[in-house]
Amino acid sequence: MIAHISDIPYFGEHTQLTVLCDSCGWKHTDFLPAEGSKPGGWSLKVRTPEHLRVRVVRSSSCTVRLVELDLEASPGNGSSGYISNIEGVFNRFEDVIKMLRAQAEDEEVVEQCEALLRELNRVGDGEGSVELLLLDPMGHSQILHDDANPRELTDEELSELQTGPSVPVFDVDDV
Prior knowledge:
The radius of gyration is 17 Å and the shape is globular. Helix 1 runs antiparallel to helix 2 (107-124). Helices cover 24% and strands 34% of the residues. The two termini are 15 Å apart. The chain is α+β, with helices and mostly antiparallel strands. The chain has helices spanning 86-103, 107-124, 155-160, and strands spanning 2-8, 12-20, 27-33, 40-46, 55-58, 63-66, 71-73, 82-85, 130-136, 142-144, 149-152.
């Protein structure tokens, strides 16, 4: 287990926790704020190429949505936290879309993938816009920009969101 404490501008002190297994290669990374958090959401309408440089802190419990494109990345058992910028978030979506396009056997699916990739490129070029939405039931995620809007999650949203992986805790005496 590796724990690294640092201060992220506008986010505050946090601990980056990475748990590794040298035997099987399993790895889990998450970001935990020093201060207590409550469930929260963040949104930003990505309109300009400058928005692509906006910093994003995404914990392993966070659902990421590109609203107008109807794209969503939900946390699963293998979910890890990361610090990136919006361009990096877009790249993650693009990688998955390209993988789906390469595996598609249906021409309609290929066309849908290509349309999504074109739209992401348009937004990146400043010719379109898309709302980036972070929904985190643990409250550890954030979009670090003055144009970003924080809010509390509704009870309905909380009931529908996945919380991501649970990190196993081992007692040294039992190993």
